[in-house]
Write a structure and sequence with these properties.
- With 260 residues, the protein is α/β, with parallel strands linked by helices.
- 47% of the residues lie in helices and 15% in strands.
- It is built from 10 helices and 9 strands.
- The strands form 2 sheets. The chain has a 6-stranded mixed β-sheet, with helices on both faces. A 3-stranded mixed β-sheet has the order 5-7-8.
- The two termini are 29 Å apart.
- The relative contact order is 0.11.
Amino acid sequence: MSDEKSLLNLVIEDNVGILKLNNPPVNVLNRAILTQLSSLLDEIKDNSEIKVIVLTGEGSAFAAGADIKSMPALKAAEGEQMALYGQEVFNKLENLEKVSICAINGVALGGGLELAMSCDIRIISEKAKVGQPEINLGIIPGYGGTQRLTRLVGKPKAKEIVLTGDNLSGQEAYDLGIATKITSPDELMSTALELAKKIASKGQVAVRAAKKAIDEGFEQNLNEALKTEAKYFGLVCDSEDKNEGVIAFMEKRKPNFQDK
């Protein structure tokens, strides 16, 4: 999206799509930016050049949450529809076959944290702050915060975070497992891109299968999850990449994956 009204910027570098929220000053997630994000995810899905996404924010914020100015007029029906639309867009990101990495460069509050949690992996700046402060406005998270946060940190801690509305530092978010890496602000994007390019260099048939096995198995009991893993293991055994990877290993050379 390159027109002047775009609220997102996409640049492709070494098979990595760098997607930046661009709604100054704090990248508020209004309806317009959610709609553009949904459309851009459809484009990314069909773009074979992009293998991994790095999502971050322009400026000093990742995303400061949903559009509070639109909320005074909301009644029950409108509020539910607003939440369902945000969930639909974030589910599209989470369910994308391609791996997504969120580089949390600044505040990620409310909808901002909910968006970050929809990514597969999160890397956070030491200077960032995250939280679900909706309770301070007399509302609750509506874009998946009560559910994804609980799955990341457990019920008691999720209740503490949501019910107090308190912010967490980058270090606290890392310690709780909300983020898998913590860096200085200057090293955030280089760390995210290094990880993204490493994943992009792998055979994407296996990457997609591994992501599906983890995501689907997480919602199943162990016996069902093991069967899910076996199913995807079988599927990758039919791939050209499997043959190339195994032969390259035996020949002690770097594999040349074709994502087939």
